Amino acid sequence: MSVIYKQLPCGIMAGCDSMNNVESVALKIMVKVGGMHETSENYGLSHFVEHMAFKGTKERDKVQIAIALDELGGSFNAYTGKEHTVYLCRVPKTYFPEAFNILSDIILNSTYEESEIELEREVIHQEISMYEDSPEDKLSTEFYTTSFKEQPFGASILGPVENILRFNRDDFVRYIDNHYCNNNIIVAAAGNISYDELSNLTEDAFQKREKTHQSSIEKPIFTGGECYIEKDLEQTQILFGFPAIEKTHADYYKMQIMSLILGGGMSSRLFQEIRENLGLAYSVSAHYGAYKSCGMFSIYGGVDPKNANLFIEKSIEEIKKSIDNVTFDELERVKKQLRCAILMSTDGTSSRVGHLLSSLDVHGRYISNEEVLQKVEAVNLNDIKLMIKNCIYSDKSTFSCIGRNIRENVMNYENFLNLLKS
After folding, report:
1. Is the Cβ–Cβ distance between 274 and 253 less than 8 Å?
2. Which domain holds residue 398?
3. Side-chain half-sphere of 169: how many Cα atoms within 13 Å?
């Protein structure tokens, strides 16, 4: 097996997917802390910390970091989610040790100078403004806030502006000391590299880091509710959804296949009915958002305001019809779609390191493509029908929309709930 993973003496979990026939290496370093680990007092800090990573360390200032990254000819980035923060790169194999050194340096040794914090406040402020100006992003953010009321999981990753303006260097240092600990970090690489090389680099960089991290977060609780956002738009955008299973659940692949059948592509039920047959929307889709701690199943569409209610009615009607008449051919088509995606993902270092990292994070072990394919093949029609029924007839749901004269154009929450129950 080309994949090796072990818990290192320093406390970090390290995994390597060796590919000797390629010229590059992709690296991801995950810190298992994100938006859901924050409190109302520090919402947005995980994301702010990630922004500050490339702003200077004890060894390099931000210009030296930028020059060093550009010289390697690869790609470097970072992102913050609800459950984790990830730092990543992809470089030619020759330069991997240097790239690892840079990434580990910004994680371990960032200085968080006040002058750089002040500059980055405005950058994040503009990022928040950009999201506020984007109807899709605004709707998605408020959808989560409504679905998980007064919980960190439902809060915006970016945080409120008042928090961004208030954070100081002590907040950053305290946050790093509390969360950026070795037992809270996973290092994964895929490409032309051996496990021994990766583990040696990791041990050398992180051996002096504090190993122990304690976390006592509460599992997110789906509350559901309504959210109507008034905005002067040509379209009315609608997003409604239901609680779903988490990534670790035995029925994960059943849920994934169900989502694809309903709204995962051009041949999906909702695309064919809502766009092709009725012409109600240019964009319509179903989405299964799975996390370690919870899951969400949602339906999205952008429509002419006069068609908003018809879109909702026909979408719900189509989902309910699927409980009885989803076909074997549909199931096999989606299985083939997943098989092809899984097989094609084996060609790239970026996709393989992503799968390895996710496996180690969610399951604590590597989940091979063969194991995934076996689980996909085991899904049957009764599984899909039960998953659809459990979703659409859930005792909780979230209904959100954004547009012009939104209360006049879109049915109220009570009518939406009545449609679900009918």
Report:
1. no
2. 225-421
3. 9
Q: Starting at the earlier edge strand, list the strands of the sheet with 75-80.
A: 3-7, 13-18, 185-191, 24-31, 85-92, 75-80
Q: Are residues 154 and 238 in the same domain?
A: no
User: What total number of domains does the chain contain?
Assistant: 2
Does residue 211 belong to any structural domain of this protein? no
Q: What is residue 210's predicted lDDT score, i.e. its pLDDT? A: 67
Residue 216 resides in a domain: no
DSSP H helical ranges for 182-307: 195-206, 252-263, 269-270
Kindly list the catalytic residues: 50
Q: Is the domain of 120 the same as that of 251? A: no
Q: Using CA atoms, how far apart are residues 175 and 53, in angstroms rounded to an integer?
A: 13
CB count in 10 Å sphere of residue 214: 8
Among residues 175, 206, 237, the one where a domain terminates is 206
State pLDDT tens for residues 383-419. Answer: 999 999 999 999 999 999 999 999 999 999 999 999 9
Q: What is the pLDDT of residue 81?
A: 96
What radius of gyration do the chain's Cα atoms show?
23
SS3 296: strand
- What CA–CA distances, in Å, run from 174 to 27, 100, 157, 266, 378? 27, 25, 19, 48, 47
Summarize pLDDT for 76-133 with one digit per residue, the tens. 999 999 999 999 999 999 999 999 999 999 999 999 999 999 999 999 999 999 999 9
CATH of the domain at 382: 3.30.830.10
> Which one of 143, 172, 206 terminates a domain?
206
% of the chain residues with pLDDT over 70: 98
pLDDT at 184: 94
3-state class (DSSP) for residue 239: strand
Cβ-based neighbour number of residue 99 at 10 Å: 21
Residue 1 above 60 pLDDT? Answer: no
pTM: 0.94
- Kindly state the greatest CA–CA separation across the chain: 64
55 with 382: CB under 8 angstroms? no
End-to-end alpha-carbon separation of the chain, Å? 52
Q: Which residue has the tokens 């991290």?
A: 213
